[in-house]
Amino acid sequence: MALARLHGGPLDGQIIPLGDADDKLIVPYSETQVVYNRRGEPQNTGAADGPTEVDYWFEESLEDLTLDDD
């Protein structure tokens, strides 16, 4: 199984399981969804160097994000 490493946006630094390595991830976040795009090539693709990692960078949220929790 591959892992997606998320950069930027509200999920910055999160690592999530990645089934098929698509070029775009749409991830649920609070009451909306956020979009991350793949950049670069997979890392750790050898048999003995750990799980494969793919970098994804924040593109947009599908609705406005509310960063102030009251």
Which helices and strands, and how do they pair?
Layout (H helix, E strand, L loop, with lengths): L1 E6 L7 E4 L5 E6 L2 E7 L14 E9 L9
Provide a descriptive summary of the structure in words.
By secondary structure, this protein is mainly β. Helix content is 0%, strand content 46%. Strands 2-1-5-4-3 form a five-stranded mixed sheet, with no helix packed on it. The mean pLDDT is 86.
Largest sheet, in brief, is: 5 strands, mixed
- How many domain modules? 1
What does the overall shape look like? elongated
Helical content band: under 10%
- The number of helical segments is 0
> Element order, helices and strands?
EEEEE
pLDDT < 50 stretches = none
- The N- to C-terminal Cα distance equals 38 Å
Number of strands: 5
Strand content: over 45%
From the alpha-carbon coordinates, what is the Rg to the nearest angstrom?
A: 13 Å
Which structural class matches the secondary elements? mainly beta
The main sheet orders its strands as 2-1-5-4-3
Q: What's the rounded overall pLDDT mean? A: 86
Nutshell version of this structure?
The protein has strands spanning about 1-5, 15-20, 25-30, 30-40, 55-60. By secondary structure, it is mainly β.
List keywords for this structure.
mainly beta, elongated, 46% strand, 70 residues, 5-stranded mixed beta sheet
